[in-house]
Specification:
340 residues; alpha+beta; seven-stranded mixed β-sheet; 19% strand
């Protein structure tokens, strides 16, 4: 009786396997016949009703039936997977003679290229690159730089105030105050970063732009050191034949102060459209750090001196890559950016 029942289960299962068309159907057959609630499992659960002397024989028949069903299931599954794989490969045929799709790879923005070049020049001269906060206190942005509340220069910078004492920095010079307050001397640093001023947008102005502040503080630093450093910087940036000249100027945080011009690297100083016929191009402001600025940061001006300079990053990018309009740097026009 048990043998006939097992034979019937095997025949029905093999017929179901043969008629299966998908892997899902094969899996359903495996569960229904060999799973925890399958037909063979139910027979094994009923072994308690079989006479003790017949149990070994019945168990052997069940195992043989299970083994045969599993073997046929596995063979069918392997054949079906091979057919599925072959069908998928046929559908996904790739014509290797077709041209490949060109991948568009991004590149550095002109501002970042100019910044990297400037940083490399000064790092090569032993300077450290430091950063400071864009949201700043009035003290660091103005007062510690010798610009008190009633100073005219404070009105000229058209500052974005967040509250009475908190503002968006108008210059990266505030970073040099943070570094001086640390008291770790000597200092040789540049501080690139974004600054903010309430300017109208035009070809040479923007409410958000970038500056690179430089500062050196040590014993026996002179204006000659400043001139030599900036002359090397100009030659590295614009070419070995570049000349520099310094014109007297005024900045509240430096004394004496100057503006530096470089000889036009397009015409060699002869005069052209690029330099507006003058042969020289204004590039940065600089000077010796004011003794009062040193004192406010607890540095003895009788023992230490220093120089500072500030250059606009966009100014360098416009000159370096011969761009006429600063707005092009921020309009994200792919036609323009692809040139770099």
């Amino acid at each position: 009786m048990m043998k006939e029942k097992l034979l019937k289960i095997k025949e029905e299962t093999l017929a179901q396997i043969k008629g299966s068309k998908t892997l899902e159907q094969l899996n359903e057959i495996r569960v229904s016949q060999l799973g925890k609630k399958g037909a063979l499992t139910e027979i094994l659960k009923g072994m308690k009703d079989v006479a003790p002397q017949d149990r070994p024989k019945v168990g052997q028949l069940v195992n043989e039936t299970r083994a045969e069903i599993e073997k046929v299931l596995e063979e069918s599954r392997a054949k079906m997977e091979a057919l599925v794989r072959e069908s998928r490969l046929s559908a996904e045929t790739i014509d290797v003679t077709l041209p490949a799709k060109r991948m568009k790879v991004g590149h550095m923005h002109p501002n970042m290229r100019a910044l990297q070049e400037v940083e490399n020049i000064f790092v090569g001269m032993g300077y450290e690159v430091v950063e400071g906060p864009e949201v700043e206190r009035d003290y660091y942005n103005f007062e510690a730089l010798n610009i008190p509340a009633d100073h005219p220069a404070k009105d000229e910078q058209d500052t974005f105030y967040i509250s009475g004492d908190i503002l968006l920095r108008t210059q990266t010079s505030s970073t040099q105050v943070h570094e001086m307050e640390k008291g770790k001397l000597p200092i040789r640093m540049i501080a690139p970063g974004r600054v903010f001023r309430s300017d109208e947008v035009d070809a040479t102005h923007s409410p958000s732009f970038h500056q690179i502040e430089g500062l050196v503080i040590d014993k026996h630093v002179t204006f000659a050191d400043l001139k030599g450093t900036l002359a090397v910087f100009a030659k590295e940036l614009f070419g070995e034949d570049t000349k520099v000249k310094f014109r007297p100027h005024h900045f509240p945080f430096t004394e004496p102060s100057a503006e530096m011009d470089v000889s036009c690297f397009k015409c060699g100083g002869k005069g052209c459209r690029f330099c507006k016929g003058e042969g020289w191009i204004e590039i940065l402001g600089c000077g010796m750090v004011h003794p009062h600025v040193l004192e406010m940061s607890k540095i003895d001006p009788n023992e230490y001196t220093g120089f500072a300079f500030g250059v606009g990053l966009e100014r360098i990018a416009l000159l370096k890559y011969e761009i006429d309009d600063m707005r092009l740097l921020y309009e994200n026009d792919v036609r323009f950016l692809n040139q770099f």
